[in-house]
Amino acid sequence: MNWDDLRVFLAVARAEGLSGAAKTLRLDPATAGRRIARLERSLGAVLFAKSPQGYALTEAGQRLLPRAEAAEAALAEGRAETAGAGGERLSGTLRIGAPDGCANYLLPQVCAQIGAAHPDLDIQILALPRVVNLSRREADLAITVSPPATQRLRAEKLSDYHLSLAASRDWLAAHGAPDGPEALKGARMIGYIPDMIFDAELDYLAGFGVTRVPLASNAVSVQLNLARAGAGLAIVHDFALPAAPDLVRVLPDRVRLTRAFWLVSHAGPRDARLDRFATLLRDGMRAEIARLEASVA
Fold first, then answer.
1. Are 120 and 93 contacting, i.e. CB atoms less than 8 angstroms apart?
2. Measured between alpha carbons, how far is 188 from 168 in angstroms, rounded to an integer?
3. Comparing C-alpha atoms, which of 73, 80, 53, 81 is closest to residue 10?
4. How high is the pLDDT of residue 82?
5. pLDDT for the residue numbered 154
6. Mean pLDDT across the chain, nearest whole number?
7. Can you tell me whether residue 263 is helix, strand or coil?
8. How far, in whole angstroms, is CA 91 from its chain's centroid?
C-alpha cells in the first residue's frame, strides 16, 4: 500500500470531495481521483460512495480510515522527533488563535513538542470563546470550527473530532443515566450561554430539542468542570476526557457528535516560515486528536 495514496485518501475523506482534497494537497482533482482509483484497485474495495453531494466513506472506507490515521500519526511523531535536527530551526514569534477547548486540551501538547524542536521560536496561544479576527492581525493563524466565508482568508481542514454526552460518576449514581437522546430535553444540562454561541457548529443541544440550559458558560473548560463537580450532563470533547477521568460517557452509541477543526491563514503571499509552522501544527494536531480519542474509545 502506497503512503501517497493513503494521504490522498485521508484528504478526500476529510474534504468529502476531490476538489477540496486537491486544493489541500496542491494536486489537480483528476490526479487525486486517479490516486483513489489506484488505491481501490490495490485493495479490491470501493472506499467512497460518489454523489452530487460529494464523496462519502463506504464501510470499507470507514474500516481503512483509523488505520490510515494511525499511519499518519506515526509519521507526524517521527517528523516532530527529527524536526530541527537536519534543517533550519524556526525562530521569532508566532501567534495561534483558537477556541478555548482546542487551546486548553490540544494546543499545549502540540506546541510543547514544536517548541522543543525549535527552541528559538516563541509560540503564543490566544484562547478566545469567539472567532479570532485575522484581518485585524490578532493572530498569524487561527483554528476554527467552520471555514471562513470570505475569500480574504485561506482555510485547510485540520481534522474531524468527536464529542460525547458525559457526567460524573456521583451525578449518575444519584440521578441515573437518561433512557435515550430524547430524554435530554428534560435533563439538567450543562452547555453554552445561548446568546454567546459564536458558531452554529457549537449549538450541540439544539439538535436534541434542549431549550433550557440551567448551568451555562461561554468556556469549554468551565463546562467540563461543572460536569466534574456533579452539576449535570454535558456534551464534552472526547479529546478532553483524558483530562477528566472522573467523567463517564453516557449513551456512547447513541449520542456522539462529529465536528471539524480548520486552520485559517491570510490569503496573501505565501510565507515560508508560517507554512512550515502550519505543517508542524497540522501534523501535531491530527496525531494528538487521534491519540487522545483512542484512549477513550
1. no
2. 13
3. 73
4. 55
5. 87
6. 89
7. strand
8. 26
Provide the CB-side half-sphere exposure for 75 (13 A, CA): 14
Q: Cβ of 201: how many Cβ atoms within 10 Å?
A: 13
Backbone phi and psi for residue 106, each to the nearest 5 degrees, phi listed first = -125, -50
Among 162, 192, 181, which residue's Cα sits nearest to residue 250?
181
Among residues 284, 281, 261, 262, which one has the least CA distance to residue 273? 281
The beta-carbon contacts of 264-270 under 8 Å, at least 24 apart in sequence, are 264/134, 264/141, 264/142, 264/143, 264/144, 264/147, 264/148, 264/153, 264/154, 264/155, 265/134, 265/140, 265/141, 265/142, 265/153, 265/154, 266/134, 266/152, 266/153, 266/154, 267/151, 267/152, 267/153, 267/154
User: Which domains, and CATH codes, for the chain?
Assistant: 3-81 (1.10.10.10), 89-158+260-294 (3.40.190.10), 161-258 (3.40.190.10)
CA distance 66 to 68: 5
> CA–CA separation, 19 vs 33, rounded Å?
10
Q: Who has greater pLDDT, 86 or 143?
A: 143
Is the pLDDT confidence value at 232 over 50? yes
Q: Which three cell numbers stand for residue 11?
A: 484528504
C-alpha cell at 275: 507554512
Residue pair 287/72 in contact by the 8 Å Cβ criterion: yes
